[in-house]
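Progress narrative, work stream C.
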Amino acid sequence: MEGSNYLRAAQENESKANKKAKGSFFKNLFGSKGDRLDEARDLYEKAANSYKLAQEWQKAGEMYKKCADCERETDGIPAQYILDSVSCYKKVNNAEYLTMAEDAIAMLAEEGRINQAARLRKEVAENYEQQYEYEQAVIEYDKAAQLYEMEDSVSFANQCYVKEADLMIMLKEVNFEKAIQTYNKVINEYMKKDILKSSAKGLVMKECLCYMANDDLVGARNRYQNFSFEDVAFANSREGELLSNLFTAKEMNDVDSFQKTLHEYNRITPLKKEETQILVHVKDTFGGLGDGLNLAGNDDAEEKEPDFT
């Protein structure tokens, strides 16, 4: 069947469904409201499927919404139709997608489908992140993490907490203490399992950089030393050596050494976006030392990476 035929079939079923949903005097006399709405729901669902085949995602989403409305009217379970609507709107209408996703998350939670609610909440967080709405993305990742924790899905919760902390760094007003706490929460979980301990090094590095960005070199050194007791190999790791060299550069107020250290590290192990952003703030703590700090005071610094060449 061609696209035009799918569209025609969808429109016909939608028209029939609308008539069923509205009803008439005689149908009210000879048929129950529940029966009419069940028939309308089935027709709306057929219309939705045809609209999908015709690639008419906006209309398909609307039809699934109407299916959900019919379910509500008959005390049915609308959650699946809401989820289907969410999937359609996600392709074409971001505002409607976010609205329907909130409804779906609430319904899934009420039905005890917490893992599904968490997955959808994480999708919403990713959506905000893709739109560069980092402040809202931070909130959504935190909510997703908490939902995963309710189901003891620690691994997924940790992923969300890491994303939350990473995006905190991208905000115009950075709460470094909160980012440190969030990284530390995940590090503690990683250290409980041998298989995850190696993943903790990168988070400790970001945690120490947050201390430095907050102009707390003592805190950074203490965290470094404490973790070195937990993981004796940390000091000789690339992350550990980088931090040690950065500490020395900061103590000496040596910007050239700071940038050379970063250049050498970045040449072999490219720095991640959030790491470069933290380092912008670390560089700012050196203050007024000439061209080497040309990002200091740049209002757009949070969207740029520093030049370590």
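Work stream C, second folded protein:
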Amino acid sequence: MMKRREFLQKAGMGVAVGVSVARIESLNAPKGLTLAEQLGFRKEDRLLILHADDLGMCHAVNVASIKGLTEGVVTCGSVMVPCPWFPEIAAWARNNPDADLGLHLTLNSEWQYYRWRPVSPWDKVKGLIDREGFMWRDVASVRENAKAEEVEMELRAQIERALEFGMKPTHIDTHMGTCFSRPDFFEVYVRLGAEYGILPMLPAPNPQILAMAKQLGIDYQPIAVRLKQQGFVFIDNLVTGGSGNTLEERRKSYYEIIRNLPSGVSEIILHLSTDDPEIRAITGAWQYRYHEFLIFTDRETRKFIESEGIKLIGYRHLAELWRRQTRK
């Protein structure tokens, strides 16, 4: 089973060993301006988005992510609408309208026993459902069985449900990278973002991403150029996670990643959780989520980031820039 982080690694968007930073060439340079400059910073500034994935998946993830957003250095996150604990995080979002939360558009249910189903009427999206009646566990099964019309119906239903619950999403991204796995899925993903006025997360192309996209039948370079011309914003550098098994090994890995960030806008993808019986029953990799929770709610991490001169931003900054550019 392949989480978003694993899919992004396979897509060349990061390497989960040592310093896992993909240096992505920037498309964000109208009139010679870098993305950092468009956001009001200096060209040489290092800007960092610390993004928590999987909010709404379970209570332990919600508790940890909220603490990361309110007491730690986490700047934003994205919510899984089909999951059982979505109502809890949606209620928190309503009560905290300044929170920078997007939607983690979901087409997979990857865990062994803890599963979820589509938001859409199940008889209308049969290609999204496995033999057990849940969403497919892996990306390949969605790619092989789902129709683009079903994907659009489900993603639209997730966006509508979030809006009905009072959320005001700042962005959308894709759980396990599934929306990037077929050209027609990707077209739906970008089009729905534009239709609803919600910024889609887009990585700027590097050779590895272009090669992986080509294998999936996506000619990403001209697509990226066209989207840039339309005002879409691309993340300069994407980090898919640290390495190590112990807390201190992972802390050292993340600090090394942060220390070596290049200029421009970088995003680190995080998965936070408290340590309790719920998350231990869901995944055998619970300790990595717990480690990330401890690291990114630690005051020493904030001090370290400040000592490196790195400026923390969220997707709200990018969304505001996108809206300005698309109004031109």
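The domain at 4-326 is CATH 3.20.20.370 (TIM Barrel). No further action is required on this item.
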